[in-house]
Amino acid sequence: MSLDLIPLAVLMGLVTYPSRAIPLLVSRVERMPPLALAYLRLVGPAVLAALAAANTVVRVETLADGTRDVSFHLGPEWPAVALCLALVAWRRNLLLGIVAAVAVVALARAMNLG
Amino acid sequence: MSVIVFAGAAQFAAVGYVMGGFSWVGVVLLTAFLNARHLLYSAALAPYLADRPRPLRAVMAHLLTDEAFALTITHFRRVGRADLWGYWFAAIVTTFIPWNVATLAGIALGGAIPDPSAFGLDVVFPAAMGGLAVALVSGRREVIAAISGAVLAVAISLAWDPAAGIVAGGLLGPLVGLAAPGRPLGRAYPESALPLADPELAGQALEAGKAGDPRGPRDGTGR
User: Fold this and answer.
1) Is 0.95 surpassed by the pTM of this model?
2) Where along chain A do its domains lie?
3) Contact criterion met (CB < 8 Å) for A66 and B107
4) Residues from chain B contacting residue A1 (CB–CB below 8 Å)
5) What is the ipTM of this complex?
6) A34 contact residues in B (CB cutoff 8 A)
7) I want to staple A97 with a disulfide (CB 3.0 to 4.6 A). Which of A20, A48, A49, A84 is the partner?
8) Which residues lie below 8 Å from residue B175, measured CB to CB, with a gap of 6+?
9) Cβ partners under 8 Å of residue B151, min gap 6
10) Could A56 and B130 be called an inter-chain contact, meaning their C-beta atoms sit closer than 8 Å?
11) Higher pLDDT pick, B13 / B188
């Protein structure tokens, strides 16, 4: 195992930490106007949905030269995620939704559908 | 890297860039850009944690990931207040430990592990994020913010970059949601989410002589 990349990991950690810490450490939440609090309340659903959508229909491939190819992808993942969302909304059970999504994708790939 | 950076997307991207011979400066800049979304997570959790000790919040910040945020914000919203044990469980037990154990397993076992995509395991992340977003929805504004965030994220990911798409979806989706009619803005956070509404913390503040805080009562409305 090479240790050459540890300084790079430290640098990556140093640029990552401020984005995680600054709002938690310096925000004056009690002085925020209601509009700002309402905005923050909507951040959760918005950013989680953004992560889900981008990781479902956007495919990123790293090419041999290190550059990335970004493309739109409609495979078995999107009906699987849609099924998960429906199950969570209906049964309020995230584990059930994830298991169903995995089963749909595994089945589709076993049948060479994705 | 899994301990120091502890951010999956940036780590995966860094591996590709290092193998492609990119400079460290490029990798570090890419990492900062990819992880900018953590600003949103941190800001959304801040109202719940404002009166916790600063050193504690500094430690909590290092463990803030997509998964920890998703589980924590859902839990905090469900119980209506900050629950530190809930945060530690989400951040350490369900994320930090498995991530680092899996990293060690990958180093040790490497090529012996079959392609996980054949088993559909790559869909776990988007399904979990989407499912947790559904769990956070409690009104029209949340639905609109979530749908807007998703659409914007995909569009901007394709037009520019996936990291930018996710940040833009998280930033702009709530603005679209705010424009929709919904509950009065004053109830954005439950009263108990704001620190001095917690009787135990309020008692501690009284003992510390903060009862005369000129900022007045924190009733969750910001007024």
Assistant:
1) no
2) 74-114
3) no
4) 107
5) 0.86
6) 185-186, 188, 221-223
7) A84
8) A39
9) A53, B169
10) yes
11) B13
